Amino acid sequence: MTDVLDKGSAWLEDQRNRHMTRMVTYQRDGDSVELAATIGRTEFEQADEFGVIHKIESRDYLVLSTDLVLGGVQTLPKAGDRIREADGAKTFVYEVMAPGSEPPYRYSDPYRRTLRIHTKHVGTEG
Asked: Which pTM does this prediction carry?
């Protein structure tokens, strides 16, 4: 018996990747890869030592997990990696990270096809 939800999820991910992406460069040390990424965001809430709740927004990149290949090996995002996003003459640089004890990525679907990578803007070039 086929898993209809799995097939539907695969179709939706294919449509997202075809029609809702832009090319970005994912970097770790000396390795890099061009990826088709959908731009998103995640809001985190974090309490400080006084109990005050702070809202932090992450710029997220949704990429196919099979596309994140560095040095010939499929890998997962790590804090400290960089994503470079060109926009005209400017290139925006984002560092892979999440606030507090949150992981720097999560799977965006139950079949682990898509990674949602959390980042913070760390620089602009150009």
From this structure: 0.88
Pairing of strands 114-125, 105-107: antiparallel
What is the helix (H) or strand (E) element at residue 90, kind and residue range?
A: strand 90-96
Q: Of 123, 21, 32, nearest to 75 (Cα)?
A: 32
Q: What is the pLDDT of residues 27-81, one digit of tens each?
A: 999 999 999 999 999 998 888 889 898 888 899 999 999 999 999 999 999 999 9
Give the DSSP letter of residue 3. Answer: -
Strand partners, 92: 85, 124
14: its two tokens: 């294919």
| Interatomic CA distance for residues 20 and 37, integer angstroms | 8
Place of tokens 């079949």: 111
* Structural domain boundaries in the chain: 4-125
DSSP line for 72-84: TEE----TT-EEE
* Tokens, residue 117: 């990578």
Please work out, in degrees rounded to the nearest 5, the angle formed at the alpha carbon of residue 105 by the alpha carbons of 24 and 120: 60
Terminal C-alpha separation, the chain: 54
